[in-house]
Design brief:
By secondary structure, the protein is an all-alpha fold. It is 78% helix and 0% strand. The protein has 11 helices and no strands. It has helices at residues 4-26, 30-34, 40-50, 52-69, 72-93, 98-124, 128-135, 144-173, 191-209, 215-235, 239-251. Helix 1 (4-26) packs parallel to helix 4 (52-69), helix 3 (40-50) packs parallel to helix 5 and helix 4 (52-69) runs antiparallel to helix 5 (72-93). 23% of the residues are buried.
Length: 252
């Protein structure tokens, strides 16, 4: 049975979300264009506190509020943020590992950014090649697909980091029962990730120098190779080598 206290908290959270929608409209869509992940926190905190059933109900209510009080573009930004916030809140309420929540949030953020970019290009006829033509003058060795996927991945990573860190900070300040935090240097990836990375590196070498493969396979191998090296230095907590690696990527 739904308690009166849960209904009151749910109504308060919906009111906070409605205030965010109002601020977004009054600020010329500044929230959704610069920090759409903010929409995820009301439902995230409520789901972590009240459980899956009440969190799902509040998520549906917020989605309906977006249809009534939000613009056309706000629908997609807020709905993806609500989905990410709800699923992250479920992970917190079920005491899932923090790294698992972060990886799942990262995957959803990448998929959300990819879908929004594809949708905008189809609906409004945005030509990304015109913007990429200026960038290709400084990095001529990279193709449009590789650059687009790297940027989508970087945006997803930054969004997932913002959601993950702010959510943990808020949960700790509210004295919620969450999984204890551990240093990033102690986080280790599974062994199969390392094996797959070595195989992809070898395949990438042969694709670039020995074999002739379609451009799509070469682009995917290049994207995967760059991201694996980047995450390796992050998990190894080697800041000097990490900064040097990022600098080399922009210089080459």
């Amino acid at each position: 049975m739904i308690k009166t206290k849960q209904i009151t908290k749910g109504a308060m959270v919906c009111a906070i979300y409605g205030a965010l929608l109002f601020l977004n409209q009054q600020s010329a869509l500044m929230i959704e264009s610069s920090a759409s992940w903010i929409f995820a926190f009301p439902v995230l905190i409520y789901t972590a506190m009240s459980g899956v059933k009440m969190g799902l109900l509040v998520t549906v209510c917020m989605g309906l509020m977006t249809m009534f009080f939000g613009g056309f573009t706000t629908w997609f930004y807020s709905w993806t943020s609500l989905l990410i916030g709800f699923l992250y809140g479920v992970g917190v309420s079920k005491h899932v590992k923090n790294m698992t929540n972060f990886i799942f949030c990262f995957i959803l953020s990448v998929l959300a950014n990819l879908c929004i970019i594809l949708l905008w290009s189809k609906l409004f006829g945005i030509d990304f090649y015109e913007d990429f033509r200026l960038i290709s003058q400084y990095i001529p060795f990279i193709s449009l697909k590789v650059f687009t996927y790297l940027m989508i991945g970087m945006l997803g990573l930054l969004q997932a980091l913002c959601i993950h860190l702010v959510a943990l900070m808020v949960c700790m300040r509210m004295h919620m029962d969450i999984v204890p935090l551990q240093p990033l240097s102690k986080v280790q990836s599974p062994r199969w990730v390392g094996v797959c990375s070595i195989v992809v590196w070898i395949a990438f070498f042969f694709i670039q120098n020995v074999l002739e493969c379609p451009m799509g396979i070469q682009d995917l191998a290049q994207i995967y190779s760059l991201w694996i090296v980047l995450f390796y230095f992050i998990f190894e907590n080697n800041r000097i080598v990490l900064y040097f690696y990022i600098l080399v990527l922009f210089i080459l």
